[in-house]
Design brief:
Blueprint: E1 7-15, E2 19-26, E3 31-38, H1 45-61, E4 70-75, E5 81-86, E6 90-91, H2 92-98, H3 103-122, E7 125-126, E8 135-137, E9 144-145, E10 152-153, H4 159-164, H5 183-199, H6 213-219, H7 232-241, H8 252-261, E11 276-277, E12 284-285, H9 291-301
Antiparallel strand pairs: 1-2, 2-3, 3-5, 4-5, 6-8, 7-10, 8-9, 11-12
Length: 306
């Protein structure tokens, strides 16, 4: 186990391609945290730049309620950089594998993460790796965006980092063309993620295995089908966000508003007072209220009557 000052009880939570996440206790305050430690040392300027990019981006974003809190950063004695973050209970990759989400939960998830992207894009930061595994939840927060490891500041352009650890299932076609990234990349990835958590696997993918690159590029030309039990209006919003042309996609702010506007159930019916029983009679008698009395009656209850 790595030595991180002020931390004890480290145990492995997850291992990835370029980092390992540990569960630990922060001794000074007695709270449990997650520590993300780079598997490689900071032996090159490129590695150092990537770590600083992640640390700064995560620090700038963590004030948002739907972005994972970053507590501290540092480097171990053997030159492995680490980030100390809020500990979450699981990811939406776990959730979708257990049972796909319904339309209401997926829409609300999308609204929260879209709002986090609005915040990050306004600060010149792109996430570039939105996917179910990077959206976490805890007892106190139903959705937080994690891992700004591929994030870039607006003035930086480093496509090689993206291609190195690209998640093909949620990446838009322009990422395979070495195009400069933009906010449209995150919009596509979020919409693909929302579709996946309702379907149980990525859009257009027919099984759990990863298709070849050639097959993957061909999939972009296939339509995105409706999902059983999911309102067409919600699926249409996700199709809009997954347009192959990045110029045809909504911004993160527009996506947030579109998701907010999706109605998943008919509006509630007009209120009907419950039946009243007349003493000595088992048959309920329904008493209707005249408009003036109805207004007074609802005012007495402290509610508005539309």
């Amino acid at each position: 186990m790595p030595y991180v000052p002020g931390m004890s009880g480290l145990s492995v939570m997850a291992r990835g391609g370029y980092a390992t996440v540990y569960r630990a206790t922060q001794d000074s305050v007695g709270r449990e945290v997650a520590i993300k430690v780079e598997n490689r040392r900071l032996e090159s300027a490129r590695d150092q730049a990537r770590f600083l990019r992640e640390a700064r981006a995560a620090g700038r974003m963590s004030s948002h309620p739907h972005v994972v809190d970053l507590f501290d950063v540092g480097v171990t004695v053997d030159q492995h950089p680490y980030l100390i973050m809020e500990l979450c209970d699981g990811s939406y990759l776990d959730r979708m594998r257990r049972a796909p989400l319904g339309a209401a939960e997926a829409r609300d998830l999308g609204i929260k993460i879209a709002d986090a992207l609005v915040h990050s894009h306004a600060n010149g930061v792109l996430h570039r790796d939105v996917k179910p595994a990077n959206i976490l939840y805890s007892h106190f927060n139903s959705a937080v965006l994690a891992d700004f490891g591929l994030a870039v500041l607006g003035e930086m352009r480093d496509s090689s980092v993206t291609l190195e650890v690209l998640t093909p299932a949620y990446a838009p076609p322009e990422m395979f063309r070495h195009d400069d990234p933009s906010g449209a990349v995150d919009v596509y990835a979020l919409c693909a993620t929302l579709y996946a958590v309702m379907r149980g696997r990525p859009p257009r993918w027919e099984n759990e295995g990863s298709p070849s690159l050639i097959t993957l590029l061909d999939l972009f030309h296939q339509p995105i089908p409706d999902l059983p039990g999911i309102p067409r209006a919600l699926t249409d919003v996700l199709r809009y966000g997954m347009a192959n042309d990045p110029r045809s996609r909504p911004t993160a702010a527009q996506l947030r508003e579109l998701l907010t506007g999706v109605q998943l159930a008919p509006p509630p019916s007009t209120y009907v007072p419950p039946p009243r029983y007349t003493a000595g009679d088992d048959t309920p008698t329904v008493h209707t209220l005249k408009p003036a009395k109805k207004k007074w009656f609802f005012g007495l209850l402290g509610v508005q009557n539309g």
